[in-house]
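ingest -> validate -> predict -> emit
validate: passed (alphabet ok, no gaps, 131 aa)
predict: started
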Amino acid sequence: MIVTIDFNSDEAFYIQLCNQIIFGIANAEFRDGDNLPSVRDLADDIGINMHTVNKAYTILRQQGYVKLDRRKGAVIAVSVDKLKAMEELALEMRVLLAKAACKNISCEEVHEIVDRIFSDFSSDPKEKGKP
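emit:
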């Protein structure tokens, strides 16, 4: 697992870690049932505190991306509650769309951005990166 932390970023390390794991799941680098590195191993590998990794894993568990198993550690286990996921997405997007409206970004421009980004997570390799 390759994780890079931007030590110069204003974004908290645990958020960077969460986001990279979510991107890895979306890009099929991680599959349901895959083990993540132990808290200690990952902290040592990327040079951050164990508590930071533990916080990231806890948040990922709360959000339904991993389950924590005493024997196996953190395991990818994506929640399949689509209705709940759509409600959570709508709440998160509400703020992003408000920011877009404040910057005079049109609905059509937002759709173009969403289509471009979503294509990066396509399961069909020839669809990846298509605008």
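Residues 94 and 103 are 14 Å apart (CA to CA).
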